[in-house]
Specification:
heterodimer; A: 485 residues; alpha+beta; Immunoglobulin-like; 2 domains; 5-stranded antiparallel β-sheet; 4-stranded antiparallel β-sheet; B: 316 residues; mainly alpha; Cytochrome Bc1 Complex, Chain D, domain 2; two-stranded antiparallel ribbon
Chain lengths: 485, 316
């Protein structure tokens, strides 16, 4: 809680000179119920459920691929997401997703301000979770304040140790869930408890347990205020059309308690009850105007609405409002509708860019080939003269079967009349225009290919065509050169 | 804070614009605001100092006249390198052992071992062989191209391994590949005119000159008297003595008329070192497999359709 009383400010000069370092002022937010709190509960439940449950979802991919719905298989360099499988050379899909996530944040910021900070950011979700633990173990805001001030008696030590143990268990579950995205969850879970998982799994769980314990249990709002770059970026992105949690001072001021205001008039709606400060998870006073500590979680809106209901005043003394709207409201004009607030040109442009990237990626995903080849021509030597005068070129042909089943394919030559090829597992006597072989499931198969052509053949284009011989079919072609003197 | 101006109140006040306390000193009306760092930050700062002290004690840190303080762990970058190399060697050991006990002709039956051998041979080739044969093993005048299907001393795995092990005309190795073509001109065995005629005949074998010319006819007689012992009646050479095939399109010392005359006049006796003693037998085996894999290897033994698997099938 930050008080406006100057004596309570942490920077007040003491007898031994100014304090250069400021101790954290613990925040003990009071619970509140209301529409934004309920949204927060829903987002928290959804976020935690998605985080913990996703790795355990199964997805049948046949006998040649893992059955985990979402799996980042670093060892085999595959990324599985339900029906989609990404190879390293298709990483642009992941890059595209990251770009979409970035522009998505811009879009959300432009439309509804710091909604990410207030509802969806893991730091917010876990801080919220830990604050509920505080209330469960230590009691409400007043009990927590009292316990904080109390001396370290055995009872307090026991209570603290118990609370930190719960922190630790939550942190461990948080860190522990992360590793299941990178390996088959059931078997890794079994290995983990039988000390048979890879060391990196234990190290990851250890690091994430520690960071969750420290950042969620103790640093909390300081992460947002001091460490996170996103509030700085966001404050550059907010404009007069962005939704922010606003104290409508033109309606609230002059503030004062109902009693003291009896005598004198006029008086604003704010009764200076301090509820907005008491419920704030970052411990700020929203009545001081927009500030970096405000994550726009709108719990103060819920708190103030309840107070306004009690004293019989309309809700929304503190509310989501744009700066533009605030100015017009001060001038006595009616507020804009929510749709008008959200859909302004900047939002629409961000949305257009965001959906264009999404559609382009969906299109690319739908039309991508599951059979591919690439050909690297030998450059040293570029061509070979054989003893009978014919010419030979060497190629490294990489065949990629990106489906989760073996496929029968034919690699055929096109161009260079009379030329024939053989691989390093064939004899030159069996040189042919088309090699048929079976590609293993979900793998790339490098082939050493030699192509020979009659004496006197000129340098020209040569093509390799890979064609699937199964019912599904499909083909890929690679054009390169046949070199000659 | 012994500034005489800040006696008593300390000169500190709350700045009106920001509501922040000043530090209490001012120069020409410029004052500094006190914006305190959070305490966890200074705790991290001291933690870093503690870490640094531990680091200085455990690791080499303080420079001395010769070297530096060793540190309690006695860690050195050279030591770390040695350990990593030893670990890499240990990881390679099963493959090297498998290669050591597998006869070279049996390696192609094991595709995994074959891949390892080719990769190892490629690395060893770049270090030891590339200076003469070129990085792509394409050779140059006087240094054979190892990619083609023309072999002086044999192109089977076994023959290549023998050549690498004992070298060619290499003094000091009893089993080295040895042959000495006479210098027909320098040693006055043939006259210049006779050499010119032989050159016409030799070049006619691969169609570089007309077979029916008078010079080729004269040369054929001289060839029969002087050259067939090693190069054979039809000029197809003899791998037992490293005599090159003169009827094909590949010329180690060049097929132009002047180059052929030069080779007959002053015979070339190319030398390749014996690599036994310089390289271990497994590396030599890997080199032989790599060279064999470059596209011209003979005696192909992999499971291939009929027609493969016999020596000399390299001729189409």
């Amino acid at each position: 809680m930050v008080s406006l009383d100057p004596e309570d400010q942490p920077v007040v000069p003491g007898p031994s000179g100014p304090r250069l370092y400021m101790k954290r002022k613990p925040v003990f937010p009071r619970p509140v119920d209301g529409r934004f709190r309920r949204i927060k509960w829903a987002v928290m439940a959804a976020a935690l459920a998605v985080y913990y449950a996703t790795p355990w979802l199964r997805w049948d991919r046949g006998p040649f691929a893992p059955h985990q719905a979402v799996l980042i298989d670093l060892a085999h360099r595959r990324f599985y997401m339900f029906a989609i499988e990404i190879w390293p050379q298709e990483f642009y899909f992941v890059a595209g997703l990251l770009i979409m996530a970035g522009i998505g944040l811009f879009l959300v910021t432009s439309a509804v301000g710091r909604a990410w900070c207030g509802y969806a950011c893991p730091q917010t979700v876990w801080t919220d979770l830990f604050q509920h633990v505080d209330r469960l173990i230590d009691g409400d805001r007043n009990a927590q304040l009292k316990l904080q001030a109390a001396p370290w008696t055995p009872a307090k030590i026991l209570r603290r140790a118990f609370k930190w143990l719960i922190y630790l268990v939550i942190s461990f579950i948080t860190g522990g869930a992360w590793i299941f995205y990178f390996a088959d969850a059931p078997s890794l879970s079994h290995d983990f408890w039988h000390a048979a998982a890879p060391p990196v799994a234990y190290a990851t769980v250890g690091v994430l347990t520690f960071t969750t314990f420290a950042l969620g249990g103790f640093l909390r709002e300081q992460v947002c205020i001091y460490m996170c770059p996103w509030p700085r970026i966001q404050s550059a992105m907010l404009d007069e059309k962005s939704l922010t949690v606003t104290y409508k001072f033109w309606r609230g001021e002059p503030r004062g308690s109902i009693k003291s205001a009896k005598a004198e008039a006029p008086r604003g709606d704010c009764v200076d009850c301090g509820m907005c400060i008491a419920v704030c998870p970052t411990g700020i006073d929203i009545r001081n105007g927009p500030q970096i500590g405000c994550i726009t979680c709108a719990l103060c809106v819920d708190a103030c609405d309840r107070v306004m209901a009690q004293i019989g005043r309309p809700r929304g003394l503190i509310d989501y409002t744009t700066l533009e709207d605030a100015i017009s409201e001060q001038a006595g004009k009616p507020p804009k509708s929510h749709a008008q607030l959200i859909w302004h040109p900047r939002t629409l442009i961000y949305f257009a860019i965001w959906s264009a990237i999404g559609l382009a990626m969906l299109f690319a995903l739908g039309t991508r080939r599951h059979l591919a080849l690439s050909v690297a021509r030998d450059r040293d030597p570029p061509f070979m003269l054989l003893s009978d005068g014919s010419l030979r070129n060497g190629y490294t042909v990489t065949l990629r079967n990106m489906e989760d089943r073996p496929r029968r394919v034919e690699l055929a030559l096109s161009g260079v009349p009379g030329a024939a090829m053989w691989s390093d597992t064939m004899a030159r006597a069996n040189a042919t225009r088309a090699i048929v072989q079976t590609l293993p499931a979900d793998q790339s198969e490098p082939l050493r290919i030699y192509v020979e052509a009659a004496p006197g053949t000129r340098a020209q284009q040569i093509g390799f065509t890979l064609r699937a011989l199964d019912a599904e079919g499909g083909s890929a072609r690679y054009q390169t050169r046949f070199d000659a003197p | 804070m012994s500034d005489p101006l800040s006696e008593g109140t300390g000169g500190r006040r709350i700045d009106e614009a920001t509501g922040t306390e000043t530090m209490g000193h001012e120069w020409d009306g410029i004052e500094e605001l006190n914006t305190p760092l959070p305490r966890w930050w200074v705790i991290l700062f001291y933690a870093c100092i503690l870490f640094a002290i531990g680091y200085v004690i455990l690791y080499p840190a303080i420079p001395l006249r010769h070297g530096s303080t060793p540190g309690l762990l006695h860690w050195t970058s050279r030591g770390a390198f040695t350990r990593e190399m030893a670990a890499a060697q240990a990881a390679r050991r099963p493959v090297l052992h498998a290669l050591a006990v597998t006869p070279i002709d049996a390696v192609p039956q094991n595709p995994a071992l074959m891949r390892e051998a080719i990769a190892g041979g490629r690395a060893a080739f770049k270090v030891n062989c590339a200076p003469c044969h070129g990085a792509g093993a394409a050779g140059s005048i006087g240094y054979p191209n190892l990619n083609d299907d023309d072999w002086l001393w044999g192109g089977t795995l076994d023959a290549i391994q023998t050549t690498i092990t004992h070298g060619i005309r290499y003094p000091g190795d009893d089993q080295t590949r040895m042959s000495m073509m006479p210098s027909f001109g320098a040693d006055k065995i043939l006259t210049d005119n006779q050499i010119a005629d032989v050159a016409s005949h030799v070049r006619s074998l691969s169609g570089l000159e007309p077979r029916a010319s008078a010079a080729a006819h004269r040369g054929a007689a001289i060839f029969a008297a002087n050259c067939v012992v090693c190069h054979g009646a039809d000029g197809h050479g003899n791998r037992a003595v490293g005599a090159p095939n003169l009827a094909d399109h590949i010329w180690l010392y060049g097929g132009a008329r002047a180059q052929v005359i030069g080779s007959i006049t002053n015979a070339h006796h190319g030398v390749m070192p014996a690599w036994a003693g310089r390289l271990d037998p497994v590396t030599i085996k890997m080199l032989a497999i790599y060279v064999h894999s470059l596209g011209g290897g003979e005696g192909f033994a992999a499971a291939a359709p009929a027609g493969a698997g016999t020596a000399g099938h390299g001729q189409p």
